[in-house]
Automatic annotation (TrEMBL):
Transmembrane stretches, start-end: 7-31, 37-58, 70-91, 136-162, 183-202, 239-259, 271-292, 330-352, 395-416, 454-477
Binding residue positions for K(+): T111, T112, G220, T316, T317, N433, V434
Pfam families according to UniProt: TrkH (PF02386)
Gene Ontology terms for molecular function: metal ion binding; potassium:chloride symporter activity
Family: Belongs to the TrkH potassium transport family.
Name used for this protein in its record: TrkH family potassium uptake protein
Organism: Marseilla massiliensis
PANTHER family: TRK SYSTEM POTASSIUM UPTAKE PROTEIN TRKG-RELATED
One cellular component term from this protein's GO annotations in UniProt: plasma membrane
Record keywords: Cell inner membrane, Cell membrane, Ion transport, Membrane, Metal-binding, Potassium, Potassium transport, Transmembrane, Transmembrane helix, Transport
Membrane topology: Multi-pass membrane protein
Amino acid sequence: MINAKLVYKVIGSLLFIEAIMMLSCLLVSVYYKEDDIPAFLITITITVLAAIGLKYKGYGAENSMGRREAYLLVTLIWIIFSGLGALPFVISGYLTSYTDAFFETMSGFTTTGATIIDDVEALPHGLLFWRSLTHWIGGLGIVFFTIAILPSLVGGSVKVFSAESTGPIKSKLHPRLSTSAKTIWAVYIVLSISCAAFFYIFGMGLFDSVNYAMSIIATGGFATHNESTAYFNSAAIDYTSIVFMLLSGANFSLLYLVVIKGRIKEFFKDAEFRFYMLVVLLSTATIMYFLITHNDYSISKALRNSLFQVAAFITTTGIFNDDAAKWPHITWIILSLCMVFGACAGSTSGGIKCIRCAILFRIIRNEFKRLLHPRAVLPVKINGNIVPNQSVPTLLVFFTLYIAAVFFSYFTFTLLGVDSTNSMTIAISSASNVGPTLGLEIGPTMSWSSLPDIGKWICSMLMLMGRLEFFSVIVLFTKAFWKEN
């Protein structure tokens, strides 16, 4: 049976964290003396009362968690956080539809960055900060954040982490998960502060610097200006964004070894990172060629804009400094592939992840070798380590689930009247937590407000499934999950 009391207890504890997050946004609203103050006051009150009620229901729960509780807990946390996080938008009146508000908040926490707000500059500073903060907390995971600061909260924290973490291969920094969480969060904070500092030095205001830094390090995409980073028209800001997007797309365990331990050679030894950078370089070079030959871009502009968009799409950050809808259609295919690939496992990015792609290519290579040498033993190796046999079918199941979810959504959006190109790229963008889409009706610089409500709910579920890598959500809908034994 599901240990419901423990689930209530943990969710109640986490809701206090969300209330504290909203309190920081309330302080921003008070500082700027804007009209979203009552909305945050009411939402904080509702969240705290919900937290107290759930803690009461979970009083006396055993501090031991099984796998079923872990998977249920992770999925519920993301849904409840988004459900309550939507309230400030609705109560303040800046969004009149709860569907729109839930979509916006789910997009924030899952670091998708898709927005239904046509004019973000009309939002008060408190709501803008709340959008960016949902990215930043959701970047490494709500539960992972909690493990770092409240290690005694959950007895089964390792199970919870495995339900929320990304990638087929798990790397450990320290035998104690809470210590690893604190270490990775330290890297995350250093990157965030460094990114904000560079933005400020290169001409952004303090508020914009902090918001864009949170959005980029979390590979989210929410911006404080309608034109995203194109608003600043600064090469220094664009290249700063590129560097920090690419760093945020790297495995954070690898970043720990490089940034904290100073072992720079680890970058070049890591097979996934090499594959990731190879995709970035090839995609950038190809798009540069088409921008120079078809759009008459100068070499410097083509390099800057193509590298920026490739970094934004492959790391699933989704910010923009140019309108890719005006680029040749062949570049859309390249950017769509970047969406699908994603960056590295163990990063804040979405997508399939480069490690899975690298493993898949090695499996394909081995199958061709096996045709010539049927009796050969051909293990799949990554970084000199043999990938366990049980990981291969899991990998293939993941690809199947990803493709099935994308095509189901594609057909649904088409039935809802969305054009074919947009339907496919919206589905990929949601499942990969990218944010922008490619098309003419809903382009990479446009909001998703024209989607029908049912489409927004489908996207919200697809974002959640993509962020938790499908298994953690879909397992809840199996009969075996709810059986007593």
